[in-house]
Specification:
The structure is a single chain. The protein is mainly α. It is about 80% helix and about 0% strand. It has eleven helices and no strands. Helix 1 packs across helix 3 and helix 6 runs antiparallel to helix 11. The protein starts with a helix and ends with a helix. The model has no long low-confidence stretch (mean pLDDT about 90).
Length: about 260
């Protein structure tokens, strides 16, 4: 890969991983538009690790508080709440991790079609709009119940469909559960940690098994760019969400899906 490819694709991955707009659609669109071949598994692993570092760094205080409450339990309300949230995140991660592990081969063989990605981008964009428009509450993240957390976790399984957008479907589910846009986004980002970590670990195993050559300079560069872009994206999205809501992202998804369909047909 050239330096320009690394920078552009790492920026695309980092900036779209946490936005409800589908990173898969953007990587395909970018590659097609510029005539670039598939970036390969090693690059995917690097950018997944980069986005993992981004969310770990951004939510480091929240994670430290939750882990501290688990390691040194106390009977305070905040301590119980932090332990409960950690449990909710763990349980909500199970469905996507399980289905992803069992269905990885099927997804790679049958669902990574541009037409599927395009229609998923449009369809799940409309569902995101519906969830936001019909949101019945404006609850904080602390109000989330076990059933709500599991429902969001089940919705995350849909993100295995390329084009659906992991953050998009989990924010959508959070809004249907009555969470505020900010609370739904925060839970979505925290919920990304186990899934992105598993994707990175799985990719590393495949790379090691196939003895794929790694250019460590390119690997570290792609990882660093994705990490910085991902961190900036989280910060900007949470700030922007309070001002403009989710509708601009829905409109963007619809336009992107139509563009992909135009490219295909």
């Amino acid at each position: 890969m050239t330096l320009v490819q690394i920078i552009v694709l790492a920026l695309i991955q980092g900036l779209t991983e946490f936005l409800p707009v589908s990173s898969s659609a953007h990587l395909i669109l970018g590659g097609k538009a510029l005539g670039w071949p598939d970036q390969g598994l090693v690059f995917d692993v690097a950018t997944h690790l980069g986005t993992l570092f981004a969310v770990l760094i951004y939510f480091r205080k929240d994670l430290a508080t939750m882990l501290g409450s688990a390691l040194k339990p106390d009977s305070t309300v905040s301590g119980k709440r932090n332990r409960t949230m950690l449990i909710y995140l763990g349980l909500a991660s199970v469905p996507a991790l399980l289905v992803g592990f069992l269905g990885h081969g099927f997804i790679e063989a049958h669902l990574r079609d541009v037409r599927i990605i395009a229609w998923a981008t449009i369809g799940f964009g409309l569902l995101l709009w519906l969830a936001d428009a019909r949101g019945v509450g404006n609850k904080p993240i602390e109000s989330l119940s076990l059933g709500g957390a599991v429902a969001i976790g089940l919705a995350q399984v849909l993100a295995l469909i390329p084009g659906a957008s992991r953050s998009g479907v989990t924010i959508m589910a959070g809004r249907f559960m009555g969470l505020s846009p900010d609370a739904a986004a925060r839970f979505s980002f925290l919920l990304s940690i186990p899934v992105v970590a598993a994707a990175g670990a799985s990719g590393m195993l495949w790379v090691a098994r196939d003895a794929a050559p790694i250019d460590w300079v390119q690997f570290l560069l792609a990882m660093s760019i994705a990490a910085v872009a991902g961190w900036a994206c989280i910060a900007a999205f949470l700030a922007l969400l309070q001002r403009v809501g989710l509708v601009p992202f829905v409109l963007y998804r619809l336009a992107l899906g139509v563009l992909l369909l135009w490219m295909v047909y």
